[in-house]
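In the current project phase, the collection of sequences with tokenised folds has grown. A representative record is quoted in full directly below:
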Amino acid sequence: MWNVMQATSELPGGITAAITDAARILTRPIDRHAYGSDASHYDLTPKAVVVVENADEAGALMRAASSAGESVTFRSGGTSLSGQGVTDGILADTRRSFRKITVLDGGSRVRVEPGATVRQVNARLARFGYRLGPDPASEAACTIGGVIANNSSGMACGTAENTYRTLESAVLVLPSGTILDTADPQADQLLADREPDLVAGLLSLSRRVTTNARSREIIERHFSLKNTLGYGINSFLDHSTPSQLLLHLVIGSEGTLAFVAEATFRTVRASSHMTTTLALFPSVDAATDGLPALVESGAATLELMDAASLAVGQKLPGVPSSLLGFEVDSQAALLVEYQAASQAELDERAIRGQAAIDSLGLLTPARLSRDPAERAAAWKFRKGLYASVAGARPSGTTALLEDIAVPVERLAATCVQLQELFAEFGYRDSVIFGHAKDGNIHFMLTDRFEGDESVGRLADFTDRMVDVVLAAEGNLKAEHGTGRAMAPYVRRQYGDELYSVMLALKRLCDPAGVLNPGVIIEEDRTAHLKNIKLTPTVEEEVDRCVECGYCEPVCPSRDLTLTPRQRITVRRAHAKAVAAGDDALAESLERDYEYDGKQTCAVDGMCQTACPVQINTGLLVKRLRREDASPVASAAWRAAAAGWGTVTRVGSGALTLASKLPTGLVAGATEAARAVLGSEAVPRYSGELPGGGKNRRRLAGHLGRPGVAPKAIYIPACVNSMFGAESGDGGVADAFAALLDRAGVGVVVPEGVEELCCGTPWASKGFASGARRMAERVRESLAAIGGTQPLPILSDASSCTEGFARQLEERGYEVEDLVAFTVRELLPRLNPAQVSQTLALHPTCSSTQMGVNDDLKRIGEAVASAVFVPDSWGCCAYAGDRGMLHPELTASATATQAAEVIAANADRHASCNRTCELGMTRATNRPYRHVLELLEEATR
């Protein structure tokens, strides 16, 4: 477990002393390998991972590292694509402790720490009608630290609203330990007092650049396009005071000059009205030829996708229908969108835009649409394109993504030349996509970059690609940063004089050269060919992963042990260790993976909702648990499946008895049992656990209004029978029965319902035989009900609904959550009164994956004046009994959202899954109930 490890003696004493809590210095092999990869094609294993807590600690770490000559790389989201987020030195993690977001001036400004994601910031700003200017496709996972370090832009912002143009001020921490808030009116004087040599050097470089006409011309030409190659030396032309020079030079410096502990952005108005289409062209040439007309018409975004991208897209779930129904050959597509602040403005732009689209030589007509679902499908495809295409690569190969920018008028010719290079060098599966409006395209190569032939081919291709881009007066990096991938070519793009300026800047800010060495500044002309990631074939769930990190923000164990990406990278590291014969490393990884990888995975599947290639790491963990299941435990759970009714009633009785005894006595007994039998075998008892629930057999037969034909088959969840309701009555089952009667609706409950279960307890623990036995019993029970048409199956706990859907997916049954059924069938027949001023609502991982959250909110709005869902909402990780087996998992997963809930001071709290209600009750000390219990109260 990460937070009980002590640093090894391999680190200099000054570095260990700089971190106030030695538990935040991670040196186990599993920790170092988990952080060893980012989204790039480079792979370096850090010497140690340090979880930095604040700006002072960052300064102390850099000061100690400078004295010791140890390199330090700051990283948060790990979504960078050029190798700037990996190191074999000390990796400073800023994801866990730097997440504060403060909205200022009604949303026109926002102060953010580097660990917050772009999506999290925009969610806070949305209610004020604003958003950040940078709009990278990785916004769900990329963090503000990386946005600043890479001078991020994106699909719509161009160069007018990128980080460089919208960052107002920042709190900078220099390698010397000096902390400077550039918003301070005395910033220039403070900087001069604390860092006189740095100030003198910056002003000297400014004079050197601004008085050199050739330097000015080169800078103006390259920075008229998107450009993230080298340092942002356009700062010397745009700013003159020391603090503003330093601030803007740090933007895009990829962690090589300073650490940004906090940043204040000027935001931009969010366009609330959009209309979108996917336009299909016969070729990339035809698509790029259409750009001038579309730009002239006022298109906000023009996203290019070539034939290879479309071919992969056709295989993905939820792909827009306009990309289906044809065989991909040489086609290309443009995602075209017009945006406006008002409906009238959008109407005008849509007319112009549709006329421009109609004038193009499209393969099929393209109509602009304002349908949110169609827009969401198009953008989901585009934003996940890199990972989706890379995920379709052959097993054992690595995806290498580059991006360039050229003047728009040279884009078509450049695309043709790149495709010719792909063919010449044998990169047959290469794809081209990107921001055509800005002349900014991405292209991907896949290969196993190992051995002289493969690495030599990459070296020759890269040299030729550089020739093509620079001949077109373009930039070798537009968005993704220089990193390691293009560091050897910085001198080539800018020439000796400006490269010398960059060298001098690096020496001024980082005299010891310890901040992210090898990034941006690199004299080794072959450095970009070293330490390339090699991905072994491991298993299907693992092999498709490109380590993009999109899964990490939604993972409930991300602050406790491992994320889905890290679970996969450790599996790969283990496979490499086994192949290399490194038994000690393999055994160490396997031993620590038991807790970090398996026991603390909630197997909630939320990672799949964020993964562009639909990887559900929870399924991997379930399989690993199944493979590890002991024969004794498997037999016990098989027996439980045979007599489940008895098991649930015994469990209910035990909880009722426990609730009548002193909490400390029961908790002590369970702790003693856990010490003997293990934390995976015995749940921990805690005070929020209720007494046992009522039996389910009392509900068997017709339920609801007598004499009406049943509309569904209702299987009350066993979890609601085992754990009593917060109110102490019959809970959601009795509430549903009352609602049915009031709405004049009936359902049927199977005979023998006490013995039925969705199978999740067995599936999540890896007991396959017990899961199969229960599935057979459920199917037999449903078949006994008969009927000419199968009725939909309902359950009253969202995770159980999901479990029944898996059990019955191949048997033709429709499975629906009680919440969705209530909105569809009952709510229109009811007249609820409001029983709450503010209702704090907790969607669940299952309700999210089943698309039930809108219905959940509708019921909430029917019973409350205001419905509050925390901005930081996420899976509570109670996960059946996982929150009792490992309460530290739920505590970690709920910490941030629990603080939000407590601060909201709502008078009612609700969810749609009993164990999630228990988890949130424990986290917030506020009583959570099923939302249907509130609806029943509101309709009395």
Remarks:
- The CA atoms of residues 883 and 890 lie 6 Å apart.
